[in-house]
Structures are given as structure tokens and as C-alpha cells.
Amino acid sequence: MINLFLSPTKSTFHVIICMLFVIPSCVFSANELHDRCSQPFNCGNQNGLRYPFWTSGREDCGHPDFKVDCSGEFAELSVSSVKYRILDANYTSGIIRMARSDFIGDLCPKDPLNATFNESVLPLAPNTKLLTIYHNCSRAFPQYVSTYVGDLPCERMSYYVTTNLSSPLLDGIRGQLDDFRSSCKSVSIPASGPWLETLQRNRTPDNLQKALAEGFQVGLNQDCSSCSASEGACGFNQNSGGFVCYSLEGANNRARKKGLAAGVILFLFLVLALFLQLIRKRNKKAFISQPKLKALIPLKQYSYAQVKRITKSFAEVVGRGGFGTVYRGTLPDGRKVAVKVLKDSKGYSGEDFINEVASISQTSHINIVTLLGFCYEGSKRAILYEFLENGSLDKLISSKRPSNMDWRDLYEIGLGVARGLEYLHHGCRTRIVHFDIKPQNVLLDHNLCPKVSDFGLAKLCEKKESILSLLDTRGTIGYIAPELFSRMYGRVSHKSDVYSYGMLVLEMIGARNKDRDAQEVGTSTSSMYFPEWIYKDLEMRGSGSLTENGVSSEEEEMVRKMTLVGLWCIQSSPSDRPPMNRVVEMMEGNVDALEVPPRPVFQIPAEPLLESSTLSENISGYTQACSMNVA
């Protein structure tokens, strides 16, 4: 999409180039796309795959969420960070059979993700039902519903259920069921309805394994079925971001008509862009039209009056930040929400608001906060999130509770934040760089599952984009990567988030041990550069315990691993920091494979944070923030 806020000269140049080269190319590519996408391809043990699946070189022939991995024996794909294996694809009947890869042959995989399958592309077949697995439970399942429940042979208490526990028939023990659910992690897996009925009649691990291995059925959506019936080829338009049917008959005529219409639209768009540029210069204020807003953010939009009703006239404050106040609210359907009401601020413009809402609206991950809606009514702006009971991470680590918490809890929080950032950097169709990772922006649900939030400073990086403007980028002192202060450290990129993550992990460790370690190091942590204190603590203990006496060796391994990963992440040069996918591997791997990183050398600036204009000069050369090949 053309940026309305580019200079008139740049806008004119880009539109002319588009009209001269892009539109004519559309005329000649229609038949080529039909021929390419009508041909099936082989992958692993599967033959004849077509839309919505695709592999390298067939980007226009499949939905972006359904790229298949053909490097192994089986054809697999990742949907919302969860791997699925394609078991059978029958394009004659329009039925595709798939299964979750991590549960094939393993009833107790490590940390399985609970993810929603994208039914807008592949709707679940009518005979597909959900099997729910509760794992890592701290209490036993209520015996009253034992007819629906089976035990899993896992190390920690785990169960599976074959029916909907929200049924009115179970209202009498609703409180006990809610208590049980809150003590477990859960995963909902699509499965074959007939197999689940067999499993319910004979609840054995063997039958459960067969049900999971049998997988579930999905069907082609109506658009693709109609396209195939008319001898067209199903595909995906990268420009419009939607399904397209490549038809051979009359394709050139239609393409010419579309090209002509696109040329007229682009010409009118150019005139509008120039007009808006003049308006912006005159008013010195960004103009964001409602149609553009709806195109960018396909979410529920609330009026300001509705926001007031949801929050009961802003009765309960649950948090305050630099850009606004967060209130507790309740949607008409009874769901609890957190409503961030933005205040007018020179540091938070309309474009910042669009950044935050557009960023989160494109995400779907267990470790990313869920956006439920927004309000944009003149100067009234608000964002509605899911409500998370345990608040933000900074409240947790600044309270007395960390000293009584298990290291496993802190380790799982650190690992969850890493997975969330890995998803933003590597799992999204559009890379998102957060630029403000800190404990205040990590929220915790009732199970202490962390969720990255507050995308006000985030930057969306299109895959073809190589230059981004960071004129208004700011952060929080103590978490800002050094390259944001000075180009002498390197280029600004997604590695800036890696630095902030490292400081967050080290602060979690420091909060857990700060009183004891300050005494043992023999100095006040407030008078010493924080990572330097961590290094001294690491040296004093060598390969021994990093925690107090009486903790298990497993916990010692966790805290040492967190320490080494955190120190690797805060290396002064971005090229020395690992990318987030490598950080996740380090957190999940063996601590013995991690070396102690060198001490980063920083020249700490005298002022805590540069002014916007100075910061802009220092980072004006930001040209590779979206590059996928940064070391």
C-alpha cells in the first residue's frame, strides 16, 4: 500500500513506476499463474498437493499460512506455531486429512501449544470434534465426570476429555471444574468424531493414540471449490491479500480491464495523496480516514460511548503508562477486558495508534496478548485487550513474591516471552519489531503464562521493504539497545528486541536474588552496572550454584541457563546477539552447550535518553531492519 505521508515527489515517482511496469506485467502474467497453480506438486510422502498448500516458487498458489515443509519424510506445515502433518489430500472430494505432528506417537509432548486452526481457509469437516488434553495439573480431575475422562501416562498429572465440559448437564459441579481447569494447562486438538466415540466407549491410551494418529478432516473453502468446478486454479493475491481464482478463458481481457481500472484508481489515489500531503503540512497533524482504518484493522470497532459503558464510566483503574490509562471492563457477552484509553500526547500520534492496533491484529500466538477491538473517534482512542488476572511482570518481580517462587515459574515466563518474540520476528507473515520490551509490557494470565503487549512503538516490516523510518522511536532506559543511541554499535534491527529481552531476563534473575547477591558481591547493585554485577556473581560461583542453598540441581541449571542466555542477548554489537529463534533453542537446550559470553563494552551516555531529533540523526541509516538474513 502506498504511504500517504511520503513526500509528493517520492509518491509521484513510485506511482509512475507502478503504472509503467507493474500494471502491464499483470496483463501477461494471468495465463502463467493459471498454468502454474493448476499443476499439483509433491512433498514428502504426499503427491498432488494444491491450494491452500504451497512451497518455494509457488507463493501465488497457496495461502500464506499454509506453506509446507518438504525437507523430511512427511509433508508438514505450521499453523499458529503448531506443526500439522498432511495425511491425505483428496481434491476430488475436497476433503483433506491432517494430524498434529507433536501428538503422533507421543501422548506427552513437551510444552504443547494451544492454537486455533484457521477455519477461514480450511473449515473443519462436520464429523470433526475437539479433544481436550489437560496436562501438568496440580490437582486431580473431579470423579463426578469420570465417564468422560481418561488418564494420560505422563510424568505430571494429565487427562483427556472427549466431550464439552461446558454442557449444562455439568452445572452442578461447575465450581469444581473451574478449579480443576485453573490448575492445569490445556490443549484442544481437532479429531475424528467416530474415533472419539470409540475412545469414549473404551478409554485406553492405545485408542487415544489411534484417534490422534487418525487425525481430523478439513474441507476446501467454498471459493476454491467453486473455482475448481469452473476449471480455474485456486491461488492467493499477494497485493490484495485475498483468495483469487486464475481462469484461463478470457484471462487476458479481464487482466487488461483490471489494469486499466487500477491505472485510473492509482491516478486518483495520487491526486488524493498530494492533497492530503498539503493538508498535513498545513495542520501538522496526521489524517487517517475511517475507510483506511477499517482496511488496516479488520476488527470490532467500538464507539466512545460503548467504551464508557464497557468500563462503567472508567470506574476501575488497573494500570497507568506514559501514553494512557488502563481500565477494567466487561463486554456485553460477559468477557472481562482491559481497556487502554490513550491520552493526547506529542509522543504518541495517530500513526503510533495505528501501529499498535495493526501490529496486534495480525498476530495469533499464546504468548502475544489478544486484541478484541478498538475505538478511534476523533481524538478519542482506546484499545480493548483480553484481561489477564496476574497483571504485568514488573509487579510480580518487584513484589515480595519472587523470593518465594519456583525458579521453574520464572524460567517458563522467560521462555514464553522468547517464544512470543520469536513469533513476532520469524512466525508472522509481516515481521514485527516491538522496540519496547520490558517487564511492564509483559502480562501474565492466571497460569502465569506470559503475553507480550503494548505495541505503540512497533514497526511492521513488509518482506519487500528495506527502509523504515524511526523518527519518533523511543524506548525505556535500561532496556534500549545501544545502537538506538549511536550507530557506532551497529544498525537498528530486530536484534534491538533481543537486547531488551536479555535485560528483562537478567532483571528477573536479579529480582529473585537481589537481597542475597548484593550482600555476597559486597556492593550495592544500584551503584554498579547491572550486567557487570551478573558477571561478577557468575565468576564468584564458577560452575557452581547460582541460587541459594537447598535448591535442586534442575533449578540451578535453569537459572544458569537464563543467566548465560541473557548475557548473550545484551552483547553490544547486534551481530553478536543471537536471533530470537536461536534464543528459544538456547533456553530449551542443555546448559552445558552454552559458553560464557564476553563482557559487552558500552559507552553509557551522560543523558538517560536522547531527544527525538538527535535520536533521529543517529538512526537515520536504518536500512535493514526487516532483513531475514541478519546474523
TrEMBL record:
<dbReference type="Pfam" id="PF13947">
    <property type="entry name" value="GUB_WAK_bind"/>
</dbReference>
<dbReference type="InterPro" id="IPR017441">
    <property type="entry name" value="Protein_kinase_ATP_BS"/>
</dbReference>
<dbReference type="InterPro" id="IPR011009">
    <property type="entry name" value="Kinase-like_dom_sf"/>
</dbReference>
<feature type="binding site">
    <location>
        <position position="340"/>
    </location>
    <ligand>
        <name>ATP</name>
    </ligand>
</feature>
<keyword id="KW-0732">Signal</keyword>
<keyword id="KW-0723">Serine/threonine-protein kinase</keyword>
<dbReference type="GO" id="GO:0005524">
    <property type="term" value="F:ATP binding"/>
</dbReference>
<dbReference type="InterPro" id="IPR045874">
    <property type="entry name" value="LRK10/LRL21-25-like"/>
</dbReference>
<keyword id="KW-0812">Transmembrane</keyword>
<keyword id="KW-1133">Transmembrane helix</keyword>
<dbReference type="GO" id="GO:0030247">
    <property type="term" value="F:polysaccharide binding"/>
</dbReference>
<keyword id="KW-0808">Transferase</keyword>
<dbReference type="InterPro" id="IPR032872">
    <property type="entry name" value="WAK_assoc_C"/>
</dbReference>
<keyword id="KW-0472">Membrane</keyword>
<keyword id="KW-0547">Nucleotide-binding</keyword>
<feature type="domain" description="Protein kinase">
    <location>
        <begin position="312"/>
        <end position="602"/>
    </location>
</feature>
<feature type="signal peptide">
    <location>
        <begin position="1"/>
        <end position="29"/>
    </location>
</feature>
<keyword id="KW-0067">ATP-binding</keyword>
<dbReference type="InterPro" id="IPR025287">
    <property type="entry name" value="WAK_GUB"/>
</dbReference>
<dbReference type="InterPro" id="IPR001245">
    <property type="entry name" value="Ser-Thr/Tyr_kinase_cat_dom"/>
</dbReference>
<dbReference type="InterPro" id="IPR008271">
    <property type="entry name" value="Ser/Thr_kinase_AS"/>
</dbReference>
<dbReference type="InterPro" id="IPR000719">
    <property type="entry name" value="Prot_kinase_dom"/>
</dbReference>
<dbReference type="Pfam" id="PF14380">
    <property type="entry name" value="WAK_assoc"/>
</dbReference>
<protein>
    <recommendedName>
        <fullName>non-specific serine/threonine protein kinase</fullName>
        <ecNumber>2.7.11.1</ecNumber>
    </recommendedName>
</protein>
<dbReference type="Pfam" id="PF07714">
    <property type="entry name" value="PK_Tyr_Ser-Thr"/>
</dbReference>
<keyword id="KW-0325">Glycoprotein</keyword>
<keyword id="KW-0418">Kinase</keyword>
<dbReference type="GO" id="GO:0004674">
    <property type="term" value="F:protein serine/threonine kinase activity"/>
</dbReference>
<dbReference type="GO" id="GO:0016020">
    <property type="term" value="C:membrane"/>
</dbReference>
<feature type="transmembrane region" description="Helical">
    <location>
        <begin position="260"/>
        <end position="279"/>
    </location>
</feature>
